[in-house]
Amino acid sequence: MIRVAVVGTGGIARYSHMPSLAGEAHRAKVVAAVDVDAARVKAFCAEYGVPAAYTDLEEMLAAERPDLVHICTPPHAHADQAVACLSAGAWVWVEKPPCLSLAEHDRITAAERGTFAAVVFQQRFGSGARHLRRLAAEGALGRAMVALCVTAWHRDHEYYAVPWRGTWETEGGGPTMGHGIHQMDLMLSVLGDWTEIRAMARRVDRPVETEDVSAASVLFENGAVATVLNSVLSPREESYLRFDFERATVELRHLYGYDNENWTCAPEELWRPPDAVPSGHAPQLAALLDSFERGERPPMSGADGRQALELATGLYASAFTGRPVRRAELTPDNPFYHRLNGEVAS
Fold first, then answer.
1. pLDDT above 90: residue 346
2. Where are the beta strands (DSSP E) in 155-232?
3. GFO/IDH/MocA-like oxidoreductase domain: which residues (predicted)?
4. Theoretical Cys-Cys bridge with 180: which of 151, 154, 241, 248, CB 3.0 to 4.6 Å?
């Protein structure tokens, strides 16, 4: 059995990670949970039958020696916690956004020593996305030319009453980082790496330090051009992706997850997914555990897990500087590599 620990026992752990782990009970067992709130972690362990509750990560790692740690804490805690777990000999599955900067992401990757850190980017793992990538790779759709990537969500003022939300220091960014990053990652999985981005990010209404809406035009290495919109101001919520290839238009309309029925293709005869797997934590966890059992680097670790954060970094860099930003510029001597609003620590 793969010994699993869960760090952070809030909503994402309860409603996404624990149900997914229950589906893998034949090969994975949750042996411990960690939360800074002692009462909350004890209640979590009682509810899910987890044998050991801790309020200190290092103590848990030393006592339990887990094989895999699910990190479900706020974004500002991710980098230090991931490095601690990797150094203790555990694999890591960390919620998005994986960390607050490319510098932190590269620090996490540098801590891998036969252990690996993967990011929760579950939109890639539904059968519709897998089928689209297969068709694109085989050339069945022709050359990719145009894409739209829209995350039009709604988060009210009460949502931002949680102290760590809406600040550069603790959340790292606004809807670009915390919401739209899912659709941007799915777009990247189809179109590949980008070369240049022109963007704006604005605080229109919500009481935050970060943006509450961003928009960008993106040029990809393969020549495709995409428009990206990220918003938490949209009363009618929707996640929307459109890919225009030479011979087909493929669209995805959903909100927080999709199944095959959420996809359309024109012409229809090109769209015949061989299976029906909804997007979500469960199929990504299955792939992660498969990789663990084989001792191989899992999907959405290393360069794969860095792609969406890199695009978000480019978007912020362009928005703050007011100029086009090339992907090749996002090196350690660039202030946006270290902090997404470009501020340099004194």
1. no
2. 194-202, 213-220, 225-231
3. 130-247
4. 151
